[in-house]
Design a protein that fits this description.
homodimer, alpha+beta, 60s Ribosomal Protein L30, Chain: A, four-stranded mixed β-sheet, about 25% strand, globular
Chain lengths: ~325, ~325
């Protein structure tokens, strides 16, 4: 590239925009030359249901231990499709660049997006790039939207949790949020905390193939963490969910960082975690299957559906007490994703 | 709402986020309560092709004569789907709100989005809201992505223009861009310039139904204007396109504003315009059909495909000369959409 930073003209729709697309964005993302592109991508499809989701990513900082805003944006949308029980099929990307962003940083982000998409087996098929003046954005915001197709008839959803079901997670909690916060606050630990950002669609596909209708709920506990997600599910399904504090998988580094910052890992964001609620009689088998996947090595049962109600989430403490968990009230962790 | 402005906590994913969704965003946009919502929308669908598109909107100012960023975001994505020959089906919305945005302004924008979606006959089915601190965004950015279905076999595309074809537009050019710029620069005219922002999908559906394969290209001349869009098509189709200056429909107010600001309306953005390239023998009938629609009252032929080449666009001037038109080079009009 002739210019080393993003200029306002890169967002004009004219020659500079085409250069940015042709020289940097397209080669790194899709490989489909601009002269073959129209206003919308047209894709072959099969089936009679479609999953559709969107997320914008405004994480600060844009580079953090274990990842960056680019792979985060792909993984997040891939996972949202997987949580609907769909096979992620195609992704759109919308960039809002701040004038002055280094093109080298943009290229790193694009490369991470491409790798994440390849790993998840989805295609980036359409996109858009806008530029805002210095001080009217913050380096880069990315929207990814996604469509998914269905390969089976299984219908999962937040309202399908039933009394007796078990709550399972595929690994330790709070890693993404604490990676971001440690990085933002300049905290250093002996073992650095890395984001858990990854796609879990292959894991979900295997679960649904193996256990079908015994899988009731799939959800990724991102913003607001496991607590907020379980609270949402409890309200949707009108049930109580009870966890044991000692069953919650938290790494020592994340626990230490949470202690320093006064946070509860239950409320801290994850980006490669899958919460699933399944029939009790398959729960152990689900955990065993998950552990065979690299994405599910730390899988374990963390709770169960303990009754019908308007939706309550409880944690049994190590010393035998019980506390009620509410949603994150709101001020804790801005721009975590 | 208890709070009159957007707070950082509204983006946390917790209680405040849910309040913003439940009290303001959901009632104004979709009407589907949050407790029925999962990570992705699941929609019934038909057909074997899917259109998929995305656009982010960062227009400044967010309110302007004839519209605001909200209806612009819906119309733009509806039109991109229509340009692929698809019937717009479902839209996602991703908000990036700056801390401090007034909730009253947000509500006005949401209401405009809903109206625009209803007018175009599309559903808003999934969404996401993020909040960035003051000075890290600019009031509101909106991403809309859309999926469209196909009701026919007609395949249109920028590479299908053929020698002899006629170039048709549904009305005057440059209105959106000059509405934004006049508003930004504080220019006042006797007749205020309003945006042309509107959805043209109904017009497109009628065209395709009536003229089928005789419709070769559909494109909306947004950023970069008619000139940039025709240049793109000329390169995609490897043809020359020739327009007559005197055939270009420009309102006196837009021409006056362009003269003051030193702009050429051919390069100014439109948001409710449809460029179509059709077989010569149906061109007059296409114009006649368009003029029956409120969206096509000003329809006219503005040029034709005059030869094969690597892609050149020419304008014949009133006094008989000919100038070659290149793409907007890039600095002219930031944040026009």
């Amino acid at each position: 590239m002739n210019n080393e930073i993003v200029l306002l003209g890169h967002g004009s729709g004219g020659k500079l925009s085409h250069q940015l697309l042709d020289d940097l964005i397209i080669p790194n993302l899709s490989g489909v030359p601009t002269e073959d592109q129209d206003d919308a991508a047209v894709l072959p499809m099969t089936g009679d249901r479609l999953a559709f989701t969107t997320d914008s990513y405004v994480v600060d900082p844009i580079f953090f231990p274990g990842g960056n805003i680019g792979d985060l944006a792909i993984n997040g949308t891939v996972n949202d499709l997987a949580m609907a029980g769909a096979k992620p099929y195609a992704i759109s990307v919308g960039f809002i660049l701040e004038e002055g962003l280094s093109l080298a940083d943009l290229e790193k982000i694009l490369q991470s997006m491409k790798q994440a998409a390849e790993k998840a087996g989805v295609r980036i098929v359409t996109g858009d790039t806008k530029v805002v003046p210095r001080g009217k954005g913050d380096k880069i915001f990315i929207n990814t939207s996604g469509v998914g197709l269905f390969e089976h008839e299984v219908k999962v959803g937040g309202s399908k949790a039933a009394v007796g079901d078990k709550v399972i997670i595929n690994g330790s909690i709070g890693d993404h949020g604490m990676a971001i916060l440690s990085s933002r606050e300049g905290l250093e630990f002996e073992a650095p905390i890395e984001t858990d950002s990854m796609s879990v669609n292959a894991l979900v596909a295997d679960l649904l193939k193996e256990f079908g209708d015994a899988v009731h709920v799939l959800r990724d506990p991102t913003r607001g963490g496991v607590a907020t997600t379980l609270k949402e599910i409890s309200v949707q399904s009108k049930v109580d969910i009870t966890m044991k504090q000692t069953d919650l998988p938290v790494t020592p580094a994340v626990q230490a960082a949470c202690d320093i910052l006064g946070l509860d890992p239950l409320f801290v964001a994850n980006e490669g975690k899958l919460l699933t609620i399944v029939k009790a009689d398959v729960a152990e088998a689900v955990v065993a299957l998950m552990r065979k996947h690299p994405e599910g090595e730390g899988a374990c049962i963390i709770g169960e559906i303990t009754g019908e109600s308007e939706g309550k989430v409880y944690v049994q403490t190590a010393i035998g007490g019980r506390r009620s968990v509410e949603m994150l009230s709101g001020e804790q962790l801005p721009r975590i994703c």
